[in-house]
């Protein structure tokens, strides 16, 4: 009798079988067609999984003309080697495509799928994972379609890009790798400072180009005096103790997070557990005190959030 096999990757083919043949024997015939190891094959008849390799087709009531679905069983763990000697581990579904792997890499590293190239043993990978030679435990190499070098304090950082990426997108990658905020990055190519909204191609930057990065020393702003009153919790009605009221001299161009770090050092309260309020309004960690409307002489309330959320 004849049955149809519908594979996860869109491949369909017919098999000549007997009702007395076991599922394992059917899988052996499938392997001769598509070369997937028997141990990795998973067969479905509608919603029913054919779990026991030693049972026959007749046991599962498979008749002439039946259609079985072929999947690769389980999940695989793979390692991906990235630029700058970075290594990540991923857990993947072998029935997915290499595009799914690229999205997983993007989620972990912010390296855009559009610039990624995946290699296994020197061969670039495309299509369904199970058709590429990837196996559980495989080590892949991820490289960018275009790589530029950024000089940072004598070190060369490799940044994956494409020619129509904006300077801001390059700075985003630098921020992720170096934890250096946008406004503190000054990128220079051939003596010209690069503007955030322009593209690499606008400056003639190509694969292998070298860019210099200088950390900006931004204007500290005006020196102001602020008083910080520390409260035990968000429900407290007054300062916890007199010593928890302190006055600080700070620059209004520093951000609220920098103030939290100073408070952590002075008051021994972890910055992640600090909630700063001016009046009834929370201060935004990533805005400057000036942007948060903090002025000379203001009183800032500090509440402890023990959950650290």
What does this structure look like?
InterPro entries: Ubiquitin-like_dom, Ubiquitin-like_domsf, Ubiquitin_ubiquitin-like. It comes from Panagrolaimus davidi. Pfam families: ubiquitin. This is Ubiquitin-like domain-containing protein. This protein is of the alpha+beta class and about 300 residues long. It has four helices and 20 strands. The strands form four sheets. Strands 2-1-5-3-4 form a five-stranded mixed beta sheet, with helices on one face. The chain has a five-stranded mixed beta sheet with strand order 7-6-10-8-9, covered by helices on one side. A hairpin with a 2-residue loop joins strand 13 and strand 14. The longest helix has 12 residues, at about 25-35.
Distance between the termini: 63 Å
Q: Remind me, CATH topology of the largest domain?
A: Ubiquitin-like (UB roll)
> What's the domain count?
4
Shape: elongated
Mean pLDDT: 85
Which SSEs are present, and which pair or pack?
Blueprint: E1 2-7, E2 12-16, H1 23-34, E3 41-45, E4 48-49, E5 67-72, E6 76-81, E7 87-92, H2 98-109, E8 116-120, E9 123-124, E10 139-144, E11 146-152, E12 155-161, H3 167-178, E13 185-189, E14 192-193, E15 210-215, E16 223-231, E17 245-251, H4 256-267, E18 274-278, E19 281-282, E20 299-304
Parallel strand pairs: 1-5, 6-10, 11-15, 16-20
Antiparallel strand pairs: 1-2, 3-4, 3-5, 6-7, 8-9, 8-10, 11-12, 13-14, 13-15, 16-17, 18-19, 18-20
InterPro entries: Ubiquitin-like_dom (IPR000626), Ubiquitin-like_domsf (IPR029071), Ubiquitin_ubiquitin-like (IPR050158)
Protein name: Ubiquitin-like domain-containing protein
Domain Ubiquitin-like: 1-70, 76-140, 146-220, 224-302
């Amino acid at each position: 009798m004849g049955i149809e096999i519908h594979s996860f990757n869109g491949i369909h083919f017919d098999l000549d079988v007997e009702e007395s043949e076991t599922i394992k024997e059917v899988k052996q015939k499938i392997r001769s067609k598509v070369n997937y190891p028997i141990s990795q094959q998973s067969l479905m008849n509608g919603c029913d999984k054919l779990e026991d390799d030693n049972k026959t087709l007749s046991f599962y009531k498979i008749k002439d003309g039946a259609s079985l679905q072929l999947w690769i069983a389980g999940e695989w763990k793979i390692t991906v080697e990235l630029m700058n000697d970075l290594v990540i581990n991923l857990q993947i579904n072998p029935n997915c495509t290499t595009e799914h792997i690229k999205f997983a890499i993007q989620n972990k590293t912010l390296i855009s799928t559009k610039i990624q190239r995946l290699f296994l043993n020197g061969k670039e990978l495309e299509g369904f994972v199970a058709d590429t030679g990837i196996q559980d435990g495989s080590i892949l190499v991820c490289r960018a379609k275009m790589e530029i070098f950024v000089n940072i304090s004598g070190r060369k950082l490799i940044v994956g890009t494409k020619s129509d990426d904006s300077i801001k997108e390059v700075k985003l990658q630098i921020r992720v790798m170096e934890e250096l905020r946008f406004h503190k990055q000054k990128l220079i190519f051939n003596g010209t400072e690069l503007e955030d909204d322009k593209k690499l191609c606008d400056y003639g930057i190509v694969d292998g180009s070298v860019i210099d990065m200088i950390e900006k020393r931004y204007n500290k702003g005006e020196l102001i005096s602020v008083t910080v009153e520390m409260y035990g919790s968000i429900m407290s009605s007054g300062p916890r103790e007199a010593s928890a009221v302190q006055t600080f001299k700070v620059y209004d161009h520093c951000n609220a997070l920098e103030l939290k770090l100073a408070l952590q050092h002075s008051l021994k309260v972890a910055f992640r557990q600090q909630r700063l309020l001016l009046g009834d309004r929370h201060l935004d960690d990533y805005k400057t005190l000036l942007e948060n409307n903090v002025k000379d002489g203001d009183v800032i309330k500090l509440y402890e959030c023990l959950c650290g959320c």
